[in-house]
Amino acid sequence: MKRLDMSDRDDRGGGRPEVIALSFPARADLVALARFTAASVGARAGFDVEEIEDLRLAVDELVVSFEAVQAGGTIHLRYTHDAGTVTIECTVEPGLRSHPSEGIAGGELWGGDGELSRQLLDALVDEHGREQRQGRPCVWLRKHRANASA
Amino acid sequence: MCLAAEASGERQRVTGLPGGDEGLARFRDLTTQQDARLRDELITSHLGLAHQLARRFAGRGEPHDDLVQVASLALVKAIDRFDPERGVQFSTFAAKCVIGELKRHFRDRGWAVRAPRRIQELYLEVGQNIDRLSQELGHPPTVAELAAAIGTTEDAVLEAIEAGRGYRSASLDAPDLNSQTMADSLGSDDARYSHVEDRSVLAGALEALPERDRVIIRLRFIDGLTQSEIADRLGVSQMHISRLLAASLAQLRASFADDRRSLEA
Description:
heterodimer; A: 150 residues; alpha+beta; Heat Shock Protein 90; six-stranded antiparallel β-sheet; 3 helices; B: 265 residues; mainly alpha
């Protein structure tokens, strides 16, 4: 893990949005970091345990569905929570491919064009998508707390 | 030794039952008469043995009540299967059966990744409190509510939830104490879902899973039920459903990865 930077620890969404950034090598055994951070951010956003479980499954999906993920690359995750809404954005810095077993399965393993990932994320979160950001592909998701004010 | 011999010695102290010929005589009566009341008496009078053996397996991350249930069920099976003509004391035979069942229980439901004892215990406590608070509050609790109820920190609760990924979930086909499987409680739903979304990618991917696991995936990702709703339907905890979903998705991903490697080879 390269960086875990939590800001405004005491602000549980009452003020400006909290932003948490996490970067780690694209290895399957490190995805737990992404899940744990998602759960922590979800808790701070006031999610109930079931919403947090969905968020944990979704961030798993977000990371492994990324078509550009290759062994040896670096995953960058940006978590934002604001007024009961959590947004997670994932970009990948490609690296040299090493042994396949060391890396995280990419989207091409998971339903070809990512249709399966989309179907799973549809059920787990409120919004999700893929887009280009600063020349790099980015996948993102957004989940609202059930009782959050609109 | 063993536990069987030790249990045999304990039996008279715990149950007050006569051993030796007199005890065997009662089992001979049961075999010949099929007397339900005698069977009940034998079960009741030997429950102390089940409790004693369950205690021997306590403190390993499984709720004591669960262990007692497993041991008690094994005891009933032992009574039904015991052959008094084989020249073995019932307590010896029963202890062997009960211990075997308890070991199987740990094999099927133990921790695949060893977590520290405090985390194992906290994980169990979290699961119990989620169910309790969900009923009391009318909605799943937040992490803050859970932490307050248990008397620990939110970080500890989150750590326990993440550690739960290392906990093996009992198969849906594992029988419960009523000799029913959780999957049985689905009734005809499986048939109802068998024709749903045949064209979806997800439906196709489910072929890689055992039939019963497909039902949970379908309920969650195609039919849109929440984990709690699925848990209610199956009569298990929400955390159990969470573990099964995570394990099924991991299995699906592994299956896709294998297929891809096969294509590349």
